[in-house]
Design brief:
The structure holds two protein chains of two kinds.
Chain A (H helix, E strand, L loop, with lengths): L2 H16 L1 H20 L8 H16 L16 H30 L4 H28 L4 H21 L8 H26 L2 H20 L3 H9 L12 E4 L7 E3 L5 E11 L5 E11 L5 E10 L8 E9 H7 L3 E17 L2 E3 L7 E2 L5 E4 L3 E7 L6 E6 L2 E4 L18 E7 L12 E23 L11 E4 L2 E4 L4
Antiparallel strand pairs in A: 1-3, 2-3, 3-6, 4-5, 4-7, 5-6, 7-15, 8-15, 9-10, 10-11, 11-14, 12-13, 12-15, 16-17
Helix pairs in contact in A: 1-4, 2-3, 2-4, 3-4, 3-5, 4-5, 5-7, 7-8
Chain B lengths: L1 H13 L1 H19 L6 H24 L17 H30 L4 H28 L4 H26 L7 H26 L2 H21 L2 H9 L9 E4 L15 E11 L6 E13 L4 E4 L5 E5 L2 E9 L2 H9 L2 E21 L5 E2 L5 E4 L4 E7 L6 E5 L5 E3 L18 E8 L10 E20 L6
Antiparallel strand pairs in B: 1-2, 2-6, 3-4, 3-7, 5-6, 7-14, 8-9, 9-10, 10-13, 11-12, 11-14
Helix pairs in contact in B: 1-4, 2-3, 2-4, 3-4, 3-5, 4-5, 5-7, 6-8, 7-8
């Protein structure tokens, strides 16, 4: 064994003895979380394990603190590389490996095979180390003791909460891109800080680097435009898809265009569209729309939402938005052209398995990552580490009911969490449900196969086709009454 | 007192960073709450947790500036009176922890147009709650810890214990209504109130850390056991104390509906059908069934409780029918076949009455309605009402000229206290959209309110029909 590793081993053993009580507290928290996961089927996360990890890591780093001027170890023959190696080894062995073991245990007791979960287990370890342990170690390395560490952690938590609150637009299924950006920033910042602290004990430099990287990464992730997120998402399309095949047109069967005659500076519009050109379902993710008047002037529409919002909806969508009143007043009596870009996800690879009613609630494997049980109270589906990147719907009572509305398009096998599986369900007590007469349930599964942007132009539209009273959702067109946001 | 004031000034200088952090968090919270939090309850919850953690951290730093445990702290050899020391710490808690919350909540509520009379009880009660639930428990724990390291370890251990207690009791919580759960939520606060005074006395009078820790752990354990083991009927008995009137309500078997024989299936399942009659309810009072318990009692006195989750209760005026399957173990099934047995039903009722209403103009700006509520036309064309600190103990509904009568919520807490532990001081509920309103109708709505007057438990025992044996 090299002298560096030998010394690292000695420091590691010293830390094990020195931190006996802290290790007991931390392992106790992991045990409590694991026990509640096993016996109470708790599937939500607990912050207790994370707080315990923060406490232990802080005590570990402060045992030989890089920050400060009076610590004993500077005058000892400690190699800093040995010290760092010992601390990182401790983090992996004492902080992260118990979580791996607890997650494996919960999965094994719930009959998930190791073969189906080992990739997720390793990914979870990666996330725990780079997403939690390393940033905590970096923060502790910049502080001389627990008081400073807790104070700076509280301040950091306040900044993160303020950043979360500042997020103006939820990215929905693409939220993983925002999270990944944050994780990447954390990884880079933590690595640089730890290098600076253990190589040069340069605390001011570390604080400067942290401030700079936070100043870049936090705004970049908080204010990430969804068009940029979609562009990143497009790179993860499992299949190629020819966007030109998709036709976008106004829906002749429904209300064509709804204009709310508000007295405000903006006029609400609702554009019902039909998407054609793909074999399976699609979900509209976003929309950019502008209206071009006959004299060539163009005015952007502030799109407020696209309906339906649920995953893998039908091909008829309604785009709601706001239009500048002056432009509306000018262009209302002349034909206009709708120009826009539609961002949508194409779903495919459909499967239609059946789940039989079983009063013992025994789960049945539906896919390699999903299993469901139909018990006395409803259908419950679960998946290791995260909900699969699939739209899962139960076909019952003449309707398709999503088991989980929000799915993530993340290509990664897990997310940072302690309880290693996601669980969602549909109660059987739906209106009109005659559950006793339905011994089986058909499940429809579809997965995203392409993320597509399609530009389009629809000419010959008249803004004055429909006019509705102020603050009403009703639209009168050709003498018929209907709803503006009907879909 | 002079010495206490000196220590307080010293602590203020010593903890100026923590004080700034507390003020900044209070200001951020006030700013977000004023903007309505944009409906983001996760952010609000996270901020409340962060604020509680910051309070605990500041209190720990405050107390450990003159730590009680240990042998070599400087202040023991100084001419410090322990009463002065404790007084100064309390002054600090009141000045820098309690008062900022009070000021922020007061400003938010006054800006929202609530009157002093409607907000004062809630403001003061919130102060009591923060003191009982956060400040003084942190104070007691910090007085038993020599530094922040054991303080955090103890807090984590207590947090784990609380987490386990909540998880263990979670399933039983599903068996009784949320409206009476406030009585269970009060148990941790009462436990803290029982722990803090003796611990502070022992620590600041005698510095007996081991005895204090043992006493605190013992009382905490008792509190956790009560929290886990308390049943729905016991909580309802606590709730019954809050009854404001008494009624001679009776529950008996409905004589007009003959009892059909019940048959025991080979798997032990027995479908029951119990026709009951609720009588003695005045015309202006509406009874609501909060929960019911069904038990089978054998001739030898042995009883078997049945899960109410599989049973249905249908009420039509004074007539009540409880039906559904009960499951009997083989021994009980055999004995019922061979001996006389009875089914015992316990009904837990809330009687609503004292209906009153107020017609108000329906505007974008909130207008005073009934019971301290302020109602307005919401941003998404909804009928909205706001209340200070908590939704009143009332079933509130709205009647409008363009629609029928809709209720804001029936999920209300029967807690007699004017606030619950939360920083956001305004609660807003919607009675749904009013899209189809008639523009020619007058823009007025009538807000109606009905309050619970009495909480009653009634037991009735009915012999199991002979055909079952």
């Amino acid at each position: 064994m090299s002298p560096i590793l030998q010394q690292a081993w000695l420091i590691f053993r010293k830390d094990l003895r020195y931190l006996g009580r802290e290790i007991t507290v931390y392992l106790g928290l992991v045990f409590v979380a694991c026990w509640t996961g096993l016996y109470f089927n708790v599937t939500y996360d607990t912050v207790l394990v994370m707080l315990g990890a923060a406490y232990l890591i802080s005590r570990l780093i402060h045992g030989d603190a890089p920050a400060g001027t009076r610590q004993f170890w500077i005058t000892r023959p400690y190699r800093r590389s040995s010290l760092l190696a010992a601390k990182l080894f401790f983090v992996v062995v004492v902080v992260d490996l118990p979580i791996l073991f607890a997650q494996w245990l919960i999965l094994a007791v719930n009959h998930f095979s190791f073969g189906a979960t080992w990739v997720g287990l390793i990914w979870e370890q990666f996330l725990w180390f780079f997403g939690l342990s390393l940033p905590l170690a970096a923060l502790a390395a910049m502080n001389t003791g627990m008081v400073q560490f807790v104070g700076s952690s509280l301040a950091a938590a306040g900044i993160m909460i303020a950043a979360t609150w500042s997020v103006r637009r939820d990215l929905g299924s693409m939220e993983w891109i925002r999270d990944s950006l944050l994780l990447l920033g954390l990884m880079i910042a933590s690595s640089i800080v730890i290098y600076l602290q253990y190589k040069k004990r340069n605390t001011r430099g570390s604080i400067f680097v942290l401030a700079c990287l936070s100043g870049i990464c936090l705004p970049a992730s908080v204010f990430l435009p969804w068009t940029a997120a979609f562009a990143i998402q497009q790179r993860f399309s499992p299949q190629a898809f020819d966007a030109s095949k998709v036709q976008v047109s106004l829906d002749p069967e429904r209300v064509k265009l709804a204009i709310a005659m508000t007295r405000m500076r903006e006029v609400q519009i609702a554009v019902p569209l039909v998407l054609e050109g793909f074999d399976s379902g699609a979900k509209a993710e976003g929309f950019e729309l502008s209206i071009q008047a006959s004299d060539g002037r163009a005015e952007p529409v502030e799109v407020t939402d696209v309906l339906p919002k649920r995953a893998e909806g039908n091909r008829n969508i309604t785009v709601n938005g706001k239009l500048n009143r002056e432009f509306f007043d000018d262009a209302r009596n002349r034909p206009i052209t709708l120009r826009g870009s539609l961002y949508f996800t194409v779903f495919g690879n459909r499967q239609s398995p059946k789940v039989y009613r079983d009063w013992s609630n025994s789960p049945v494997a539906i896919t390699d990552r999903l299993r469901c049980s139909a018990g006395p109270y409803g259908l419950i589906c679960e998946s290791p580490f995260r909900w699969p990147r699939q739209s899962v719907r139960i076909v019952a009572w003449n309707a398709g009911i999503p088991v989980q509305n929000a799915i993530s398009y993340s290509p990664f096998p897990g997310q940072l969490r302690f309880f290693p599986f996601a669980q969602h369900g549909v109660p059987f007590r739906a209106p009109g449900a005659d559950t006793d007469r339905e011994p089986e349930f058909l499940i429809e599964i579809a997965e995203p196969i392409a993320y597509v942007r399609r530009e389009f132009a629809i000419s010959g539209v008249r803004l004055t086709d429909i006019a509705v009273p102020w603050r009403s959702e009703k639209v009168i067109r050709d003498g018929k009454m209907s709803f503006a946001n009907e879909y | 007192m002079q010495q206490a004031w000196h220590i307080f000034k010293k602590d203020t200088r010593f903890l100026h960073r923590e004080i700034v952090l507390l003020f900044v968090l209070a200001a951020i919270f006030g700013w977000l709450a004023k903007g309505g939090m944009r409906g983001d309850s996760d952010v609000s919850d996270a901020l409340e947790m962060l604020y509680a953690a910051t309070i605990a951290y500041t209190v720990a730093r405050l107390i450990q500036a003159e730590a009680i445990p240990g042998e070599n702290q400087f202040w023991i050899t100084r001419p410090y009176r322990r009463s002065s020391l404790l007084t100064s710490k309390f002054i600090f808690v009141i000045a820098f922890i309690q008062l900022p919350v009070l000021v922020v909540q007061l400003v938010i509520l006054l800006l929202a147009g609530f009157s002093w009379g409607s907000i004062l009880p809630g403001l003061l009660w919130t102060q009591v709650l923060i003191l009982l639930a956060v400040s003084t428990p942190a104070l007691a724990l910090a007085s038993m810890s020599a530094s922040l390291v054991p303080f955090i370890a103890s807090a984590l251990a207590l947090g784990a214990g609380g987490y386990v207690a909540v998880e263990i009791s979670f399933r039983s919580m599903l068996l009784f209504p949320e409206s009476i759960d406030w009585a269970r939520s009060a148990i941790p606060l009462l436990t803290a109130a029982a722990i803090v005074p003796p611990v502070l006395y022992l620590q600041y009078r005698y510095r007996l850390t081991r005895y204090s820790a043992a006493l605190g752990a013992g009382i905490a354990l008792c509190g956790a056991l009560i929290f886990v083991l308390i049943t729905g009927p016991a909580l309802f008995a606590v709730q019954s104390i809050c009854s404001r009137r008494s009624y001679a309500v009776e529950v008996k078997r409905d004589p007009s509906a003959p009892l059909q024989p019940w048959w025991i299936q080979p798997d032990g399942r027995m479908n029951i059908l119990l026709p009951l009659l609720i009588s003695g309810v005045p015309d202006d009072v509406d009874p609501q069934i909060e929960m019911y318990r069904v038990a089978i009692r054998r001739a030898d006195g042995r009883t078997m409780e049945q899960s109410p989750s599989r049973l249905n209760a249908k009420r039509n005026g004074g007539q009540l029918t409880i039906s559904g399957p009960v499951f009997l173990d083989p021994d009980l099934a055999d004995s019922i076949r061979n001996q006389a047995a009875a089914v015992r039903v316990s009904l837990f009722l809330t009687l609503y009455g004292n209906k009153h209403a107020k017609t108000i103009p329906f505007e974008r700006n909130p207008v005073d309605a009934v019971d301290g509520l302020r109602c307005f036309d919401g941003a998404f064309d909804e009928v909205m009402c706001s209340a200070p600190f908590r939704w009143p103990v009332r079933v509130v509904s709205v009647r409008s000229p363009w629609g029928g009568e809709t209720s804001f919520t029936r999920l209300i807490s029967y807690s007699p206290f004017p606030a619950k532990l939360q920083l956001a001081p305004i609660v807003t509920r919607s009675a749904g959209p009013h899209w189809q309103k008639d523009r020619s109708a007058p823009r007025e709505v009538t807000i109606e309110s009905e309050e619970p007057l009495a909480y009653l438990r009634r037991d009735v025992e009915i012999p199991i029909p002979v055909g079952v044996r």
